[in-house]
Design a protein that fits this description.
The chain has 129 residues and is mainly beta. The protein contains no helices and ten strands. Helix content is 0%, strand content 48%. A hairpin with a 4-residue loop joins strand 1 and strand 2.
Length: 129
Amino acid sequence: MAGNRVVAHHRDGRLVKGSTTDFLPTRDTLHIHTEESVETVRLAELKALFFVRDLIGDPARQHSNEFDVNRSLHGRRIRVEFTDGEVLVGTTQGYQSERAGFFVAPADHEANHERVFVLQAATRKVTLF
């Protein structure tokens, strides 16, 4: 699969795993090439779009929301609480509350997801610190 490996987390809990070459934060849709087909995904239906190292991941791994004190940070620290209760901590370089979405680089540098595009409508609370 060419393009960015992604996992689309829908607000209703569905996941779509594959790759995309046409994601833009300003567009309403993107196409995810799965093993079986090409799915059109509407950003308005997503909680977040995870850009991942691989599509399998490690389900047994416990993710950390702690920053590694030995690594330099790029951007501002952010804590995102989603409407489903999940919490994501990381850094952002472009958070603006009036935008539909924003990118977060996870605090856990060993996580499978390298960056996450968070949909503002799927958040309960966003804290910059």
